[in-house]
Amino acid sequence: MEAVEDIVIVGAGIAGLTTALGLHRLGIRSLVLESSDGLRTMGFSLTTWTNAWRALDAVGIGEPLRRQHSQLFGTQTASTESGLSTVERHFDAPGTQRGHEIRCVQRRTLLETLANELPSSTVRYSSRVVLIEESDHLKLVHLSDGSILKAKVLIGCDGVHSAVAKWLGFKKPSFAGRSAIRGCVYYEQGHNFEPKPFRYFGEGVRSGVIPCNDKSIYWFFTFSSSSQNEEMEESPAKMKQFVLGKLGKIPDNMRAAIEKTEPDDFILSPLRFRPPWEILLGNISKNNVCVAGDAFHPMTPDIGQGGCAALEDGIILARCLGEALRDKQGMSSEEEYKRIEMGLKSYAKERRWRAFELISTAYMVGYIQQSNGKVLNFLRDRVLASFLARLSLKMASYDCGKLRAS
């Protein structure tokens, strides 16, 4: 069975659903293919910085998400070796951080909010892409059930193992040499954490806790990987024991939060990134195909911008395609193809250096924060701590703009 679709988006994650919703707001239909049988919520929560809220407002879902997640009014970092604070920053204080909006959003809530705004037929689940071929100006998307879709535009939002990125010539993302254990905790009677992210560095590990709302918190723990990962991967009890044994001098309430975490609320994953030079040299778009989100710019989580950048991608990609497909009535297929190609090139041009900067910054920050050398530790805690905090805010100042070009 073959069907023709104007725009096929592979992957119903943050980038895929944001792109689909952005196009929907512009009156353009798309089809989203998701390989799993439902929305994938792996990762529990994500930090949404100012740039993310600009994107969420652009697509019209900022307000309902704000009502469900507490605003964070500062950030604090401390050394796990001494237990002493290295930097504390308030977002309502004078300076470059003024006007920032930061919240920790539950991934499931974000994805469900995006999906619920789309027409019910937009997302097709249990639809795994197994092959991509060309047929004149169309892309033939072969699915695991034997069906074939003919796409005028093909957008890969299918994560770090993206089939579309592979088709464009990108290599598999590189392993950063570190892994992350993440968890979430629900407090029936409410928790006692202040409304700000707490992060702790030292002895080769990086950990933190971020409140989502009055009753839920999200925590993370990143560490240099070893053969121990395989033993822990299927055992939440071993993950908990490993994390608790490596936390160092942290507050009792954070330690208690990890101890309280239910077995089903642990996840371990390797940290991967695309080398920044591949972003500069690779094909972000080619003809009528492009990538967005983790398929485009997988990065380490050290500045909390992976999900935020995926939201930016979705707005900018929808805008570029909207401009390309505007007033297409009476347009020949050849002209439509050329306009699509130019629209995707505009998207790639706008996103290339931003992605390069984000990946490079995240890797550098993670390397410094998770170092275990005496000299670098001294510089991090005494000299670089404030600089790194400002750098995160600088990355969050980006504005993806509106869906319609002014």
Automatic annotation (TrEMBL):
Residues 6-338 form the FAD-binding domain. Keywords: Monooxygenase, Oxidoreductase. Pfam families: FAD_binding_3. GO terms for molecular function: monooxygenase activity. Gene3D superfamilies: FAD/NAD(P)-binding domain. InterPro entries: FAD-bd (IPR002938), FAD/NAD-bd_sf (IPR036188), MOase (IPR044560). Belongs to the 3-hydroxybenzoate 6-hydroxylase family. This is FAD-binding domain-containing protein.
